[in-house]
From TrEMBL:
This is NADH-quinone oxidoreductase subunit B. The gene is nuoB. SUPFAM superfamilies: HydA/Nqo6-like. Binds 1 [4Fe-4S] cluster. GO terms for molecular function: 4 iron, 4 sulfur cluster binding; iron ion binding; NADH dehydrogenase (quinone) (non-electrogenic) activity; NADH dehydrogenase (ubiquinone) activity; quinone binding. It comes from Schaalia dentiphila ATCC 17982.
Amino acid sequence: MGLEESLPAGIALTSVEKVLGLARKYSQWPVTMGLACCAIEMMAAGTPRFDMARFGLEVFRASPRHADMMIVSGRVSHKMAPIIRRVYDSMPEPKWVISMGACASSGGVFNNYAVVQGCDHIVPVDVYLPGCPPRPEALIHAVLVLREQIGKEPLGVHRREIARRAEQAALEATPTHQMKGLLA
């Protein structure tokens, strides 16, 4: 007699890691981090027309201590960079970042002294959302892509080690203004 036949009806077998992964996958709480025009599209995604509430994302948290997902929307100035990092560091683990728009992802058309050439030089980014500005539907798709990544992430020490290595690699990357070739 196999294990399936010996269990009563209605009993399911799985690992704790899969159950917690499923819970984490569907329970993101985004922090408010609207910096420029992409923030308007982020706000539009919460309106009844696009309805992010059906994905459980209707409330953007004003406190980073109550959030686990940061959507960096818009250009990041050097003046805002330490504030973004402080907000990110204040968020509890596990935490994720979506870089929304061309300006947040690569500096956009602002290749000057005042704009950081990609928020991945400040915080580790999990999902890049292209566009100028990206549509609310694209933001919802980015959240769904992030959820698929979250559902596959390991728990515990392995998660911390992966996050630490990803953050270290992102922060050690060559800044865009030092790259030569087509960018010059």
